[in-house]
Amino acid sequence: MPNFVMSYLGSTVTPGQAGNQFWALMYVLIIFAGVSVAVMAMNWLERKALAHFQIRLGPMRVGPHGLLQPFADALKLMLKEDIIPTEADQFVFWVAPLIGLLASFTVYTVIPFGPSQAVSDMNIGILFMLGVSSLAVLGIVVAGWASNSHYPLIGALRSSAQMVSYEVAMGLAVVSAVLMTSMNASGTGTLSMIGIVQAQQQQGIWFIFKFFPLGFIAFAIFAIAMVAETNRAPFDMAEAESELTAGYHTEYSGLRWSLFMLAEYAAMIAVSSIAVTLWLGGWMRPFPNLLQAPAWEFIFSLFPGLTFAGLAAIAFIGTARMPAQSFFRVQRIGLAVFAALLGFIALLLLVIAVAGRTADTSVAARFREGIDYVYWFVLKVAVFMYLFIWYRATWPRYRFDQLMRIGWKVMLPIALGVLMLTAIVGVIVS
Amino acid sequence: MNPALNSAAATMNTGMAPVATPWFFYALAGAAVISALFVITRRNAVHSALALIVTLLSVAGLYLMLYAPFVAGVQIIVYAGGIMVLFLFVIMLVNVERSSKERQFNRIWPVGLAAACALMALFVSALVKGRALFPERLVKLSEGTNTQDIAKALYGDAGRMGQYTFAFEIASLLLLVAILGAVIMTKKKI
Amino acid sequence: MSISEKGNPNALANAVSNLDLDTPEKPYLDSNELIINMGPQHPATHGVLRVILKLDGEKVLGTECVIGYLHRGVEKIAENRTYTMFNPYVDRMDYCAAVSNGLGYCEAVEKLMNVEAPARAQYIRVILTELNRIASHQLWLGTHALDIGAMTPLFYTFRDREEILKIFERYCGARLTTHAFRIGGCQYETYAGFEKDVTNFLSFFAPKIDEYEALLTTNRIWLERTKNVGVISAADAIALGVTGPVLRASGVKWDLRKAQPYANYSKFDFEIPIGENGDTYDRYLVRMEEMRQSMRIIEQAVGGIPEGPIMGKVPKVIKPPVGEIYHSIEAPKGELGYFIVSDGSTQPYRLRVRPPSFVNLQALDIMVRGLLIADVVAVIGTIDIVLGEVDR
After folding, report:
1. Where are the alpha helices (H) located in B130-164, listed in sequence order?
2. Please, which pLDDT band fits residue C45 given cuts at 50, 70 and 90?
3. CA pair distance C291, A33, nearest whole angstrom
4. Which of A18, A131, A188 has its CB closest to that of B76?
5. Domain annotation covers residue A102
6. Of A53, A240, A396, the CB nearest to C222
7. pLDDT tens readout for residues B151-164
8. What is the pLDDT of residues A210-235, one digit of tens each?
9. Is residue A324 in a domain?
């Protein structure tokens, strides 16, 4: 095998650090594909979960239990007529969704799925993330303007005003988390994402629990601000249907609109990943320092396989419960195949977990470690995704001026207070 | 020159070895120059603003190449993400049609051209005459500890005041006055 | 461009000057002011209602409602139908709460003819009317919450409303426009299992109101969106003729079931919930409590339906004596009144309906002065209008 492929395997740094461009590109492609799949899954989950909250079933026809619905939606959107208003600025109209997409996807280069499973561990990682996600605002402003219509412009200005306001609170919450990374013996913190998770590992505590309740309040501020950043309920006044202003993506149809939705979901996953990295210990399994015995390692390494086994079991039960008429035969077969696929993945993961159960540097052990890191990270991010949907189902939406008031008069002072208290407590304790 | 920066310069920069530096430099610099040209030649103000964003992002890339990642990050956050959003807000709220029908270039453009040529002559002569000085005067920044070095210069280190602490505090006081002034001038009633 | 249908540019500014309420300082359009049109096609106006808003930025300075998009000439039709033939038409006015429309009409004609429905019919009437009140309030709650952004209560209330509609369907064959009552009593005897169904519904529904309240009543977002939004004082409400939960939420204890009892309501023991501030939140609380009180009435009624005939002594061809009558009932949305002028023939000479939504809608102007656009949607929802009733 060529040198540039083999030289990276077995490395303990990210491809960016190792200077291996091939693997950096590979990671980028994997992340791109993974995020696209995740966005489709998120689309399905949103419709299903929202429906179940509202005592209905959601998509059931396109594929068993609507599993193929996102594909049908994507296909439909691609085949739709591409309508561009005649008075709209053609170039800017075309470029606007791309700016949002660029901003949302570039953040993924710094997100660490494991201690060496990131595209590049920039040592200004968190700063880079804050900067690039603030570019998303530009996409929205430009999209609203390019539509050359009164209501999208108002909606775009409102959305961007809201995003800019909550970026401030988000940034301050991030600063207090970064501050916590410096509470170690040498007194230096780090802005790099992998460094932040390793600081949590070193200090033996997830930052959400550090200096309780300060870490928790900072996390709560970030969690609320990230919902407002992505224009999700209860902060979605700018794109609500029952209001007069219709939102910045009104004039976009078909594939362009789906690019906006892609950017929105990708941004949701990105900011959830940030929250997980900063406060919830990133890729670490629960209690890495407390329960350190090899037995515990083995038990926790079974989790990925068991999760997929559980999902396979649910799919099998769904297959069994489907009505027996011939009308449902194709769906039944489809769901059974899906269940079998999940079961196969579960089996594979269990085999890897068992084969790599000793912590040596064999291939199986490294595979197992890598899978475990990615699994715990994705699990925590998935919890956040579910919370996004839960918020949307449960709560009414804030009026726009109330939303801005909360961002500036509630979030910002609390974030500042938490930052100062964290600094003071950190100095006192050390 | 200044002791703080020189001690940092003594540290070798850690991180990835630079790759294809000339190519990246020419690409980024070319992008910066071309989009700067677009800024001043577009009739549509929003096109100019978008081109300015590209310029600022290219400059951020150039900062990265100079082993100053913190400045690059701050450039993206403050300039591209903050100031350009403000520009775009203002452009969109101001009557754009009127300005797009005005003259594109000023009538006394030869004077501007002469001034620009004079400035370029100054730069070129500085480069040519002072070429010998550059390699040793050039401060090699440490990429790995760039953020820490800036922090030490701004905030101080281990009980000593940093070199720019006083200026930093004065600047933040100025910003506070500006914010207060803006709030007072625009509120309808206090 | 004319600002209003009347063509008078000062119509908005001087709209309610005779009520001595706040008017905008300048009756002409400032450079900041904007006239915006909401509807008639709009997801939040509960029907075909057109609201012209005069805005200062986002603040509402005044409104004007343009109605008539659903006008079907019901009152004119009444002059060409016999009293019995007109009975199904009244259901179509307030189609969300059709049973009470029928009750008001039948009682008005009975009063004109000096007949009284027998006791058993009156009990059945009360049970169905109160069930209908619960159904109407559930529909109101679902759509109001949806307008404010809470998507889920809509589905919960509609699911629970199904039980009531099932009872209606079993009783008279129709879910929505029930045509349940006849002049002189009821046509249909209660079906076998009616009492059991109603009692089951009561035990099914009691925890559901708590479920709705758990979702909304103490929710901070709901409180921020509804407290002090759309305030109307008691004096203004009485001056405008507002009735129903809107009036009661402003603190006026006036309910026709207690003030001018009809259909044996005096026999039942129930409370009239009133509010304090007259804002959207109080109207929400009043209607939730009204649902509970309706359950109380139904419980008492279904426990003791007397035996007897269900139809009074009414001739086959209904020819009321010459005269006129105004009879009103407490419909879920307010005072629903029928003014019938009879000239001795089988068809009414004039039949005028006093719809509660029509009169309550006038209060929209007062309520939204000074609020933001997003609040206009909330206030239209809280007045609880049905355009079928407003336009007839």
Report:
1. 134-137, 146-155
2. low
3. 53
4. A131
5. yes
6. A396
7. 888 888 777 888 88
8. 888 899 999 999 999 999 998 887 88
9. no
